[in-house]
């Protein structure tokens, strides 16, 4: 419920998830509307480990729209932000003119103050724009009373943001229309569908040819076929990065640490003659590992062994608890790589999670009753 | 002339060049005959800087064929070596039976001793198999009196070896026939055609490369859809454009095609399952360096290409060599006691403007590059007349410190 502090200030706080594509989106057919050249599919990660939290305050007394991201005021005129604001307001006006009179008309002509924080590093390839825009759009929709299909709005902020509008396993259907109305996200399976699936995000020190595969991936998700899911994920990641390399000038997101992680996974799987672990890399060197619950303890230990953390580097393992275990000599030898100290800064252990939600607890608001960021928000 | 020491020993020594592809070969349609899925084109480098030297001795008194590579005796039964020996002997017999009686019949039924050395590191992506097999085949042909089309023979030792049979700019026509008789090399232009073209080999490390080319390209053919697209749809047009760029000495076109093809080759390796990485962080920095350098001048002055290893080969025109070598030295400062950093053709030192250094704006990476070989396009294989160059003694065994 929007909070009214008596200063005719409406305030809503929400949180939204990160998603990691297993069939990647790369390439637009329309820059302005952000329409992709291929469909894509992702896993929504759990907000207990990774999320964006956004507070939107709306008041007659605000002179202009303003936005603060991770403690710093940013340029509200940025086109993608403007697209989202404009679209939500248009949908809100449409709703009002459609005669849905019970809509709280707050926000329709009033300016908004937006404050957003991530609980993870921004711009390090951890899909922060997806969570960010999804949260922005979701929160604005709660403030302005807009219901229904929202992924087309968040898509215009950042393509992959549309997939963060749902939990579990989500596809972004590329669509055909020029106006982009059919380019939207759809849940393939909820987060409860595959409880054994686990996700490890290996955070790096702090710096086409697609979807015949979509069909195969959707089927793998439906059937909980980890081998198929994993192989498609790895192949798609490699193909994405191959495409980046085939660009002129070429784009490199993978570095020596990323390559070592890739080799580690292939050797680990080869040792067991089974695809137990999969990697995927987005536009940055952080690795995202997919595996089943029963493999988490050993694989975390493998990562720790071959990428030993800094001695005073702080907590190496964050998120869902993972019990320590010992590795057999046989396994270490089968992998046979030189350990690389400080190659990985820390690991976030997580799993699939739900879509955006309203944060009910008023102490979570990032803006004060004056509409400005709270100290240390 | 084959040397006859009186022990009825025939001995010939030749040298053959390395070649660096600008349109790359990666992927076979026939493993045994080494027939490629696409054509390729290379520049033959000058033997004054890089070469393989091979001595073949032939004598009635030899019990069996033997081979020494870089000082070590190797397994003569290795299938590729056998292919070359068998093919050369077949051609020699054919020549005899065609009635060319003035042929010195040495070698036809006699065993051979082969000794070969490179003046550069083996198996580190410096095209050593190309020079090696080209030299072997060429030297055997001199010993056994075989003339004519030899690239089909060296091709069967190592695909890219066929391109080392000629100097200058060479294409390997992929061919269509199942028997591989039309899959051969052809000179596009001689080494004298483009005298301003210069080559810098940036040796990143002399380590062995992680995945050998033969198995690597086989896995790529089996698993990469990008490779199929490349072979079917991209390379044929690129070959045409590249040949034209060479004919016209159009450096901009030559350079851009070279860089794009190198990147596509490595993209294909990444698109393989499991993926193959030949580029490392140093290679990527070199790539970035080249793009920033070109961008600063708003002109494609320098091109890079990488084979199946992290060593960079830089193509540029003579007028840019001094500055670019200095740029490399600045951003990849050599080890203080690392030995001679610049080898090959002399390059005068020069100073870089602050403006250029800032435009490039990269952190220097110490010891990223071991040394630079400065060279240019050069001729095909040749006989070495000087008897002191023989790597085998009159006993048919490697000379000490050969």
UniProtKB/TrEMBL annotation, chain A:
GO molecular function, one term: diphosphomevalonate decarboxylase activity
EC number: 4.1.1.33
Cellular compartments per GO CC: cytosol
Ranges where the Mvd1 C-terminal domain occurs: 202-359
Region (Disordered): 355-377
The reaction(s) this protein catalyses: (R)-5-diphosphomevalonate + ATP = isopentenyl diphosphate + ADP + phosphate + CO2
Source superkingdom: Eukaryota
Family as reported in the entry's similarity comment: Belongs to the diphosphomevalonate decarboxylase family.
Domain Diphosphomevalonate decarboxylase-like N-terminal span(s) in chain numbering: 16-185
Name of this chain's protein: Diphosphomevalonate decarboxylase
Pathway in which this enzyme or protein is active: Steroid biosynthesis; cholesterol biosynthesis
Function recorded in the entry: Catalyzes the ATP dependent decarboxylation of (R)-5-diphosphomevalonate to form isopentenyl diphosphate (IPP). Functions in the mevalonate (MVA) pathway leading to isopentenyl diphosphate (IPP), a key precursor for the biosynthesis of isoprenoids and sterol synthesis.
Keywords: ATP-binding, Cholesterol biosynthesis, Cholesterol metabolism, Lipid biosynthesis, Lipid metabolism, Lyase, Nucleotide-binding, Steroid biosynthesis, Steroid metabolism, Sterol biosynthesis, Sterol metabolism
Biological processes, Gene Ontology terms: cholesterol biosynthetic process; isopentenyl diphosphate biosynthetic process, mevalonate pathway
Organism of provenance: Hucho hucho (huchen)
From TrEMBL, chain B:
Keywords, alphabetical: ATP-binding, Cholesterol biosynthesis, Cholesterol metabolism, Lipid biosynthesis, Lipid metabolism, Lyase, Nucleotide-binding, Steroid biosynthesis, Steroid metabolism, Sterol biosynthesis, Sterol metabolism
Catalytic activity: (R)-5-diphosphomevalonate + ATP = isopentenyl diphosphate + ADP + phosphate + CO2
Pathway annotation from the record: Steroid biosynthesis; cholesterol biosynthesis
Enzyme Commission code: 4.1.1.33
InterPro entries associated with the record: GHMP_kinase_C_sf (IPR036554), Mev_decarb (IPR005935), Mev_diP_decarb (IPR029765), MVD-like_N (IPR053859), Mvd1_C (IPR041431), Ribosomal_Su5_D2-typ_SF (IPR020568), Ribsml_uS5_D2-typ_fold_subgr (IPR014721)
Residue ranges occupied by any Mvd1 C-terminal domain in the UniProt entry: 199-383
Domain Diphosphomevalonate decarboxylase-like N-terminal: 16-185
GO MF, one example: ATP binding
GO cellular component terms, semicolon-separated: cytosol
Enzyme class name: lyase
Any one GO biological process: isopentenyl diphosphate biosynthetic process, mevalonate pathway
Region (Disordered): 379-402
Stored PANTHER family: DIPHOSPHOMEVALONATE DECARBOXYLASE
Protein role: Catalyzes the ATP dependent decarboxylation of (R)-5-diphosphomevalonate to form isopentenyl diphosphate (IPP). Functions in the mevalonate (MVA) pathway leading to isopentenyl diphosphate (IPP), a key precursor for the biosynthesis of isoprenoids and sterol synthesis.
Entry's family note: Belongs to the diphosphomevalonate decarboxylase family.
Protein name according to UniProt: Diphosphomevalonate decarboxylase
UniProt source species: Hucho hucho (huchen)
């Amino acid at each position: 419920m929007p909070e009214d502090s008596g200063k005719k200030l409406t305030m809503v706080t929400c949180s939204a998830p990160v998603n990691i594509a297993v069939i990647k989106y790369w390439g637009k057919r329309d820059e302005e509307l952000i329409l992709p050249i291929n469909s894509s599919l992702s896993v929504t990660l759990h907000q207990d480990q990774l999320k964006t939290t956004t507070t939107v305050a709306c008041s007659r007394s605000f002179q202009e729209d303003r936005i603060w991201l991770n403690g710093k005021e940013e340029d509200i005129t940025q086109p993608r932000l403007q697209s989202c604001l404009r679209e939500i307001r248009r949908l809100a006006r449409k709703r009002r003119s459609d005669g849905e009179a019970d809509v709280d008309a707050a926000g329709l002509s009033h300016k908004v103050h937006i404050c957003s924080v991530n609980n993870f590093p921004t711009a390090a390839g951890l899909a922060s724009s997806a969570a960010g825009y999804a949260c922005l759009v979701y929160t604005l929709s709660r403030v302005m009373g807009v219901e229904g299909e929202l992924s087309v709005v968040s898509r215009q902020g950042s393509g992959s943001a549309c997939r963060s509008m749902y939990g579990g396993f989500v596809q972004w259907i590329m669509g055909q229309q020029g106006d982009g109305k059919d380019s939207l996200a759809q849940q393939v399976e909820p987060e409860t569908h595959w409880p054994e699936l686990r996700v490890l995000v290996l955070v790096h020190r702090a710096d086409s040819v697609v979807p015949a595969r979509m069909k195969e991936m959707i089927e793998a998700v439906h059937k909980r076929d980890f081998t198929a899911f994993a192989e498609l994920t790895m192949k798609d990641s490699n193909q994405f990065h191959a495409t980046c390399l085939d660009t002129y000038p070429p784009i490199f997101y993978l570095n020596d640490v990323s390559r070592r992680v890739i080799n580690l996974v292939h050797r680990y799987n080869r040792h067991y003659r089974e695809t137990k672990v999969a990697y995927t890399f987005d536009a940055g060197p952080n690795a995202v590992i997919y595996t089943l619950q029963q493999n988490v303890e050993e694989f975390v230990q493998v990562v720790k062994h071959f990428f030993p953390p800094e001695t005073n580097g702080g907590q190496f393992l964050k998120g869902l608890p993972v019990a320590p275990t010992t590795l057999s000599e046989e396994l270490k030898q089968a992998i046979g790589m030189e350990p690389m100290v400080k190659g990985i800064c820390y690991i976030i252990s997580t799993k699939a999670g739900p879509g955006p939600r309203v944060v009910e607890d008023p102490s979570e608001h990032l803006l004060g009753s004056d509409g400005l960021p709270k100290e240390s928000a």
